[in-house]
Structures are given as C-alpha cells and as structure tokens.
Write a structure and sequence with these properties.
By secondary structure, the chain is α/β, with parallel strands linked by helices. The protein folds into three domains: 125 residues, Sandwich (Immunoglobulin-like); 179 residues, von Willebrand factor, type A domain (Rossmann fold, 3-Layer(aba) Sandwich); 87 residues. The protein has eleven helices and 17 strands. The strands form three sheets. Strands 2, 10, 12, 13, 14, 16 and 17 form a seven-stranded mixed beta sheet that branches. A six-stranded mixed beta sheet has the order 6-5-4-7-8-9, with helices on both faces. A four-stranded antiparallel beta sheet has the order 1-3-15-11, covered by helices on one side. Helix 8 runs antiparallel to helix 11. It starts with a strand and ends in a 9-residue tail after the last helix. The relative contact order is 0.15.
C-alpha cells in the first residue's frame, strides 16, 4: 500500500529554555485512499448471535436477524460466512462456506428464536473456530458477536476470555462485539473488541443494528493495514508523562493502534515533560509498524519532532494549536466519563457526580468548536441518565464507557440513527 502520512503537531512550536516544559504532541496518521478503485480483499465473517430468552424483549431478536441478513446480502461469492447461535447451548446453524447463495443463509437466520441462558464464551469460541478453519490468507477474517446479556453459562472470567480472543486475533481472526440493551457486561465486550483487534458497539436501540453492520462492513472493506503498533522514542532530557489516547500495549511496550482504514485518520496524543535546554533539539521519534491484509510483510514509517527552546517571555506569547488543544480536552473528557462509570460501579455516587460536574466545567471552558459542542451535547445526554439515588445506573455506565471508547477510536461507527 501507499504509506500513510504521519503528521506531528505540538501544542506550541517551542519549549522553554529557562524551566522544564509540559508539552502536548499530537500524531495524526492518515491512511491514503486508493488512487483508483481496486477490488476489496475477500471477507470471512462468522456471525455469533445470542438467542437467550431476553433477546425476545423489545424486538431485539427481530432486529438482530435483520442486521445479520443485511450484512450477508452485502457479501460476494468470493467471501465466506458462518452463523453460530447460543443460549445455554451452542449450535452452528450455517457452517462456514462461500457466500454464493445468500438467500440460503438468510433463510437460516430468519429461523432464529430466543430461549435459554447465555453461553457467551462458548458461542464466541465456536464462531471463531468456524472462521479460523477457513481463514482467508489474503483476506479479512472476523467474528461478529452480538449479545444482550451476562455470560452465565461456562467460562465467564473476563481475563480468560480476553486472553482467548487475543490468541485468535494473533492467528489472524479479529473480533467485533455488539452489546444490546442494559444487561450485558460492557467491560467484557469492550475488552474482547480491544483484545480482538475489532470494534465495540453499545446498542441502545435494536433499530441501530442495521446501520452498525453497514459501518462495520465499510471498515472491513476499506482496511489497508492491520496489526498496527506505535513505538515512542523520547530523546535525552524528554520523558513521556502520559498517553492521553487510550491504547493497549504490546509485550515490548509499543502502543497497539486500530487498523488503518483508508481516509480515516488515527490520532495519538502524548504529553511530554521536557527538561530546560538552549538551542534546538530532537525531542521524540514515532515509529509506526503494520502489515497489509493481503500479506504478512511488516512495513514501517517514522516521524520526529524537533523544536527550539525560547525564553519565558517568548513562550508566553506563543499561540496554542487549536487542534491539539481540542484533542486534549476531548480525551480528558473521555477519561473522566470512564472514571465516573467506575465510581458508580464502586457505589461512589457522590464521586461520580463530582466528575460529571468537573467534566461540564472542562468542556464549557474549552475554546468553542463543533467537536467540543458535540461532546458537550453527549455529556448533557449522559448526565440525564445519571441518578444520584440509583446504585445501579446501568444505562449511564454503558453510555459513559462507550462514549469514551468512541472518542479513543477512529474506526467507522454509525450508531445514532
């Protein structure tokens, strides 16, 4: 593929020469759109659908069937598909095969009816086996798990499940999770998506499902790079104080980034502590590594940051970069939302309320922009779901965590319809 463009932007174009400087730096990774229309890689999708009894409520199973049927009809004969369903039992109702007869797959999907409990891990495992057994070496292989409940049959430990999902992802099969309603374990489904190199969606209304599946298919067909990592290499006198963008880490300390999707920028914001110096100095190097879906050859790109040091009087007069400032506010807001959700889980409702108020103060004091305005609107919607007298606040928790997740990912997501 054509290499992505790496743009490094500091919040100010210099550091101080008289005192240590705290400096926010934004790395923007822009995967290019193809210059000409090219054939997309083949897809190998394993649909894993929860058919537990609660899926019969609020038309969940109806919308789940419609969404899966929509996705199947978008596949090509060169793609592959399987359908696995689970409650307390696990059944593959359409074994992995070429998608040459989508109507046959849709007929099977339309027969799915709700019943029983939730063997989430076992259902996901079987869906993963279906995809892995026919892994497309030059294609994209993914499990799409849809559930509205807690894992209450079989393995339910998030760390064990997350480890299994990560192993499957390392073997070339990623996982996307969709949580419907207010009863599922949002931490488990988000962790599965992160470990599985996929997406996580909080589905407030089943009516969103067809739009989400459409966005998921778009992200798959436009994927240009997978297994993406970023290495931060601070120079002498510089330390990385924080990575405001929430990222998992590899065993060797690299940041694990989302897949590279054509035309969809990935942004990483880091906060540096820089010792005082004079003159001009190389502060930080970024090294991006990935490989194309069609091959396993590792590719890389690098970018660096060189800045001068200036006296206090000059530093104070330097204008802040609006985009970097905006991203710092948005990512701090996302972090505080997640902390508020965690406080609710601990039963610390007063602490959660304080975090919500602090987040309002942060957003209202930020420079005006469309993104800040949208974040403030999301915050107001979130606050409306918070009940200071309700120790559960399930909807608030899920919405807070998912708003934070969306802010930290650049993958296509299409949820509010």
């Amino acid at each position: 593929m054509i290499q992505p463009k790496l743009t490094v932007t500091p919040v100010r174009p210099a550091v101080r020469s008289d005192l240590p400087t705290t400096l926010d730096v934004l790395l923007t990774i822009t995967p290019p759109l193809p210059e000409t229309q090219v054939s997309r890689p083949p897809l190998n999708l394993g649909f894993v659908i929860d058919r537990s009894g609660s899926m019969g409520e609020r038309n969940k199973i109806t919308f789940a069937r419609q969404a899966a049927a929509f996705a199947v009809r978008e596949l090509r004969p060169t793609d592959r598909v399987s359908v696995t369903i689970f409650d307390s039992e696990i059944e593959t109702v359409f074994a992995n095969a070429p998608a040459s007869d989508p109507d046959a797959v849709v007929r099977v999907i339309e027969q799915i009816q709700p019943r029983g409990s939730t063997a989430l891990h076992g259902g996901w495992q079987e869906g993963g086996r279906q995809v892995k057994a026919h892994r497309q070496i030059e294609g994209l292989n993914r499990v799409l798990l849809l559930s509205d409940g807690l894992a209450n049959v079989g393995e339910a430990r998030p760390d064990v499940i997350g480890n299994d999902v990560h192993k499957l992802a390392r073997g070339g099969v990623s996982t996307t999770t969709l949580g419907v309603g207010d009863d599922y374990n949002e931490d488990l489904l988000e962790a599965m998506a992160r470990s599985g190199d996929g997406n996580y969606y909080y589905v407030e209304s089943p009516a969103q499902l067809p739009h989400i599946f459409r966005a998921e298919l778009h992200g798959l067909t436009a994927t240009a790079g997978v297994d993406v990592t970023l290495l931060l290499e601070p120079r002498a006198g510089v330390t990385v104080a924080d990575v405001l963008t929430e990222c998992d880490k590899t065993a060797d300390g690299r940041l694990k980034l989302p897949n590279l999707i054509g035309g969809c920028p990935v942004r990483v914001l880091v906060r540096l502590n820089v010792d005082a110096f004079t003159g001009e100095r190389d502060l930080l190097r970024f090294r991006l590594d990935w490989h194309a879906p069609q091959d396993d050859i590792r590719q890389s790109a690098t970018a660096g940051l060189v800045l001068p040091a200036v006296p206090a009087g000059v530093w104070d007069g330097l204008a802040e970069n609006a985009e970097v400032r905006e991203q710092a506010v948005l990512l701090t807001s996302a972090r505080q939302k997640k902390e508020a959700a965690r406080a609710v889980e601990r039963g610390e409702l007063a602490a959660a309320e304080r975090l919500l108020h602090a987040n309002f103060d942060l957003l209202r004091a930020a420079p005006a922009s469309p993104m800040i305005a949208q974040e403030l609107a999301d915050q107001e919607e979130l606050a409306a779901d918070f009940d200071a007298d309700d120790a559960d606040n399930a909807k608030f928790r899920k919405k807070a965590k998912h708003q934070a997740y969306r802010r930290h990912t650049s993958k296509p997501q299409e949820e509010k319809k």
